[in-house]
Write a structure and sequence with these properties.
Elements: E1 28-29, E2 36-37, E3 45-47, E4 55-56, E5 69-76, E6 82-88, E7 95-102, E8 111-117, E9 131-134, E10 137-141, E11 149-150, E12 153-154, E13 163-167, E14 175-179, H1 180-187, E15 196-204, E16 209-216
Antiparallel strand pairs: 1-2, 2-3, 3-4, 5-6, 6-7, 7-8, 9-10, 10-13, 11-12, 13-14, 15-16
Length: 219
């Protein structure tokens, strides 16, 4: 039979409200929930007291690889390392980047390695829906530009957010596994990819497949 688990009765606690700057908000936790990480600044910081205090994480040579950029997301991986996205540059030179850590918990051995640069302006890697980690399998969608316009600039055919990338080694190397434009025009027979871009992506361990969602208009 099934064992009976006794649960502690729910208790009511007073609500504590405290304003914090974006740089003091914990946006991700390590798999073991010991360490927390923030973003929205020109660096990656760590907390071990749930955001009460923060330490800027430098590489083993005491350098900040995100100087001059803005860290936009942090995705903890099952091997204890991190997948980090950042934005660097402005205007036509703006390109998002993906980085992975090695020995992230060690000040004397920590490294940050850039593993991908967005191919066109405006493409981003959003942790809320366009990144997914399952053991060694990491999936990332391009998100952002749609033909013909995106946030005030013209998007040329082919420059929409169209590719899904997969890594089988915890983010160290990547390959393209899905092209939205090819799917729409070749498989679905559409004449145009106008107003279309990728949204979410996930690995399905039960059916051994990748799920991809896209939008926004059907014409």
């Amino acid at each position: 039979g099934f064992s009976t688990v006794k649960r502690v009765a729910l208790q009511k606690f007073p609500v504590t409200e405290r304003a914090k700057t974006a740089s003091a908000i914990m946006v991700a936790q390590s798999i073991d929930r010991v360490r927390g990480y923030n973003c929205f600044t020109a660096g990656l910081s760590e907390t071990m007291d749930e955001g009460m205090s923060w330490k800027l994480l430098l590489d083993k040579n005491n350098r900040n690889p995100f100087s001059g950029s803005t860290v936009e997301s942090v995705l903890p991986l099952d091997n204890g390392e991190l997948l980090i996205s950042c934005g660097r540059g402005a205007g036509e030179n703006n390109r998002r980047e993906l980085w992975v850590t090695e020995n992230v918990t060690s000040d004397s051995e920590r490294t940050f390695t850039k593993v991908m640069t967005a191919r066109v302006k405006g493409v981003k890697f959003t942790s809320g829906w366009s990144q997914y980690a399952h053991k060694n399998i990491i999936l990332v969608n391009e998100y952002g530009p749609k033909v013909p316009m995106w946030t005030g600039f013209e998007v040329l055919p082919g420059d929409n957010a169209r590719f899904t990338y997969m890594s089988l080694d915890y983010g160290k190397t990547w390959k393209t596994v899905f092209d939205l434009n090819e799917y729409l025009t070749v498989v679905k027979g559409r004449e145009s990819v106008i107003h279309q871009h990728l949204h979410g992506v996930a690995w399905d361990p039960y059916y051994d497949r990748i799920w991809v969602t896209f939008g926004d208009n059907t014409n």
